[in-house]
Amino acid sequence: AVLAFLVRPRPVRVPIKGRHVFITGGSSGIGLALARLAAAEGAHVSILARRAAQLQEARDAIRLATGVDVAIFSADVRDADAVAKAVEAAGPVDVLVCNHGVFTPQELEKQDLEEVRFMVEVNLMGTFNLIKAALPTMKQRTKVTGLPASIAIMSSQAGQVGVYGYTAYSASKFALRGLAEALQHEVIADDIHVSMIFPPDTETPGFAEEHRRRPDLTNIIAGSSGGMKADDVAKKALDGIKSSRFIVPCNFEGTMLSIATAGLSPQSSFLTALAEVLGAGFMRFMGLCFQWNWFSSIENWHSKKKGL
Ligand SMILES: NC(=O)C1=CN([C@@H]2O[C@H](COP(=O)(O)OP(=O)(O)OC[C@H]3O[C@@H](n4cnc5c(N)ncnc54)[C@H](OP(=O)(O)O)[C@@H]3O)[C@@H](O)[C@H]2O)C=CC1
Ligand SMILES: CCCCCCCCCCCCCCCC(=O)[C@@H](N)CO
What share of the chain has pLDDT > 70, as a percent? Predict the structure, then answer.
């Protein structure tokens, strides 16, 4: 009862049907699955990505699957002006999904700073550009419609725990959490609810590309969490958005990880708050077990390499 009183922001339902859902990276993988799902649920969907041909393909695929036409916008999220133009052309947004992301795993020592900067600029600065562009009209819109709105940010389980080979990627995804926590304070008065999605490895075109060059140890450590299909991640993400959850885990390991890393994040579900309060000590213990296991893998890998 105490927790039911304590949890903030208060849980609300964010409706999807008939509302404008704007998804970046909507031409591929998780973003495409989410666009299809939102369209199937009766949303007006806009998708944004760089490559126009992929956007058109995505639009055709979504039309085939749902009979719905989505609006497409070609822009690089790093280009604030281009993003602002696209958002303006798309019209006021009810649900903004910042899903675009790039990931090229490599040990920091081997990775060029150019590539580090690329990940930070797309994953982090791109999200700033997008939110800055959409927020003013989103705020007006919640006043006019009287319905809660949502800003969802695609993080990763590598945004909850640092993983070998992901120095730049994890940094960019951890940064999004700071953005999201602070932003939730700033937009709650406008009835805008922030959600962070934390998927594990997910079968997508981007992941297939990534997998070809991922260091062995990244594969081993990321393997601690079961892989998922893009459609299943999209379903979890949309459910989380609709129920205005701040933290949205996608699989069982993700639920454990979210309890272990709850920190001082907002929590609108009193059941999850209860799990966090009661589970804190045990989950810390489990986290130490996982780290023990990961450091053992790293040690073994190095001694094997020396042995060769
Ligand atoms: N797949 C996975 O294993 C996991 C993915 N994630 C996260 O989920 C999100 C989606 O991943 P996934 O579906 O695998 O990715 P994909 O690589 O399959 O798709 C990425 C999408 O983002 C777009 N995009 C990339 N860079 C930019 C840019 N600079 N400006 C505009 N659009 C851009 C791409 O289009 P285009 O290239 O044409 O611009 C594409 O539509 C990412 O944020 C990723 O970090 C999190 C955990 C696991
Ligand atoms: C309390 C104990 C919790 C236990 C669970 C721990 C599991 C952590 C595994 C981390 C996996 C990181 C995958 C990142 C995927 C990703 O983002 C890339 N594919 C790029 O897109």
Answer: 100
